[in-house]
């Protein structure tokens, strides 16, 4: 068997297929998370759940879901609100995604925040917020996904 690298014009959909798969992406309404959602849709994902953090981000998340569905009509995209720093919220929304789509194959813990406040000037509330999203968010997201993956075989986290 000979292996060769694809050239840079090879479409993503030819490199790997996510046909029939359902994906959940925290922070999927902008930046890297949105690009991940677009890539998964291009690769043939059957469903994508965009997890956004607040009512203020709901409109953008819904617009992005419609944008992806318009470009990739075979992919069903839905926006869900959850604070990833809240274990119960991310667990509940992950269960809702599983119930709505009937499966959950891929989870991307992408949500993140930053601050321009120097560490010496950061108030405890700001430090707790940043740590909650950036540290506990991926942990709680992985735990929620693992609780679903345990129910189905085979699975990998």
UniProtKB/TrEMBL annotation:
Belongs to the short-chain dehydrogenases/reductases (SDR) family. It comes from the Eukaryota. InterPro entries: NAD(P)-bd_dom_sf, SDR_fam. The lineage of its organism: Eukaryota, Fungi, Dikarya, Ascomycota, Pezizomycotina. It comes from Discina gigas. Keywords: Oxidoreductase. Coiled coil: none annotated. The keyword Ribosomal protein does not apply. SUPFAM superfamilies: NAD(P)-binding Rossmann-fold domains (SSF51735). This is NAD(P)-binding protein. It holds the Pfam family adh_short.
């Amino acid at each position: 068997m000979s292996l060769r690298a694809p050239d840079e014009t090879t479409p993503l959909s030819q490199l790997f297929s996510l046909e029939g798969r359902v994906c959940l992406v925290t922070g999927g309404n902008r930046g890297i998370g949105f690009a991940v959602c677009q890539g998964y849709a291009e690769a043939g994902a059957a469903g994508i759940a965009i997890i956004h953090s607040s009512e203020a981000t709901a409109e953008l998340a819904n617009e992005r879901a419609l944008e992806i569905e318009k470009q990739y009509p075979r992919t069903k995209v839905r926006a869900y609100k959850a604070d990833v720093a809240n274990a119960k919220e991310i667990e509940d929304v992950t269960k809702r995604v599983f119930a709505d789509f009937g499966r959950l194959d891929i989870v991307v813990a992408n949500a993140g925040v930053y601050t321009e406040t120097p560490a010496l000037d950061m108030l405890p509330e700001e430090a707790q917020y940043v740590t909650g999203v950036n540290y506990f968010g991926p942990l709680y997201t992985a735990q929620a996904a693992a609780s679903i993956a345990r129910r189905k075989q085979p699975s990998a986290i």
